[in-house]
Design goal:
Elements: E1 12-15, H1 31-34, H2 41-50, E2 55-59, H3 62-65, H4 78-87, E3 90-96, H5 111-128, E4 135-139, H6 142-150, H7 163-184, E5 189-195, E6 198-200, H8 209-218, H9 221-227, E7 243-247, E8 253-255, E9 264-265, H10 276-287, E10 291-296, H11 303-319, E11 324-329, E12 335-336, E13 343-344, H12 362-377
Parallel strand pairs: 1-2, 1-11, 2-3, 3-4, 4-5, 5-7, 6-8, 7-10, 10-11
Antiparallel strand pairs: 8-9, 12-13
């Protein structure tokens, strides 16, 4: 299903949950292993291709690859890379999806150099495997990681009140990682993924308006730093900005409250909710760069209506001129929840049995096919 308007093998993509951070209780998550995607990568990619989805998002697990500083063991990654190639599926690889080796973190001395060395080693491996122009995400969701790990201590590195500093450190690492990759693979391309949000103050709490506005501004800070328009001393430049990936879920619009647990989500149809097509237009007008929906999805019976709604709004944005170049349903496999390991039925396919068979959720398969036709017609 190639599209003239996209640099990807297909407009619709499937994303594999690849978070590898340590949560608040210090337990290491490895969602690639938990979903057995590492074990059944070839079958998973074959399933995508059979559904006409020729592009995927997936990730490397840095903590498994660099178990000793400067020593790289790619045995956890190479089979997945080769499986994707054998299946004929293009993959956008995340280099750092919330996790890093235990002996470092973004506040540690030398972290930027360490991240760059890791990225360079990955690039050399890709080059040796014949990948001349890969798509890579240096650091997934800098803004969310800065908030979760630097502002409220929800995940590693478990800091509080240091979100902006963590954001700067992650941007520095991302810039160095891109330079290291380009030194080995000058044709490499980068996708920068960030949450797309809309936050409003409650009319009965007008004092919350400045904080709500700060959240809305903050969603753009990582991209602004990468482009060099904010904190230019970090070394950002427009050449680093690449393609912008917006991650958008049902919980991405809310009524501000100083306590995150007290936030009131704005469900579809709420009068305070902002249309997604307007939000996409804002990103396009602000940066003048092509963009894609890098993550979107829902759980249970909400999967189909959510995808249908997002597809309609994306097409409205495209018809109005926004160069949206892809839409990734994420995650494409059910997974165990971050905090409690509960079964989260979010995917097109469920948990694998011992032979790698995964039950399919037919309503979502039908809706993905309908969305493919709608985007092809557009």
């Amino acid at each position: 299903m190639p599209e003239a308007s996209t640099p990807f093998a297909s407009f619709l993509m499937g994303g594999f949950e690849c978070s590898s951070h340590r949560r608040r209780d210090r337990t290491r998550l490895d969602l690639i292993a938990a979903t057995q995607h590492d074990r059944f990568a070839r079958q998973d990619y074959d399933r995508l291709r059979a559904r006409g989805i020729l592009t995927a998002r997936d990730g490397l697990r840095w903590h498994l690859i660099e178990t000793r500083p400067g020593s790289y063991d790619f045995s956890s990654f190479l089979p997945m890379l080769r499986a994707s190639r054998e299946a004929g599926v293009q993959v956008i690889w995340d280099l750092m999806h919330y996790g890093w080796p235990d002996d470092t973190d973004p506040f540690a001395p030398g972290f930027t150099a360490r991240a760059a060395a890791f990225a360079g080693a990955v690039a050399r491996l890709l080059a040796a495997e014949g990948e001349t122009a890969p798509w890579l995400v240096p650091v997934n969701e800098i803004s969310f990681l800065a908030w979760a790990g630097g502002e409220v201590g929800y995940m590693n590195p478990w800091r509080e009140g240091e979100g902006h500093l963590l954001k700067r450190r992650l941007v520095q690492a991302s810039l160095a990682m891109m330079d290291a990759v380009w030194a080995e693979l000058p044709a490499a391309r980068f996708l920068h993924t960030e949450p797309l949000i809309h936050v409003v103050p409650h009319p009965q709490r007008p004092a919350d308006a400045p904080n709500a506005a700060a959240f809305n501004r903050g969603q753009f800070e990582a991209w602004d730093m990468l482009a060099g328009t904010l904190h230019p001393e970090l070394g950002g430049h427009p050449r680093y900005l690449g393609l912008l990936g917006v991650n958008y879920y049902g919980q991405n619009q809310w009524v501000h409250h100083d306590s995150p647990a007290e936030r009131e989500l704005l469900p579809p149809g709420h009068p305070w909710r902002r249309p997604l097509d307007e939000m996409l237009q804002e990103v396009w007008q602000r940066y003048g760069r092509p963009l894609c929906i890098a993550e979107t999805g829902a759980e249970g019976d909400a999967r189909v209506p959510w995808l249908r709604s997002v597809g309609e709004e994306v097409r409205r944005a495209m018809s109005a001129g926004a160069p949206v170049q892809g839409l990734c349903f994420y995650p494409i496999l059910d997974y165990p929840g971050w905090d409690d390991d509960r079964h989260c039925p979010t995917g097109l396919w469920g948990y694998a049995d011992d032979a790698g068979h995964r039950p399919e959720y037919p309503p979502l398969a039908e809706e993905l096919a309908a969305q493919a036709q709608a985007f092809a017609a557009l």
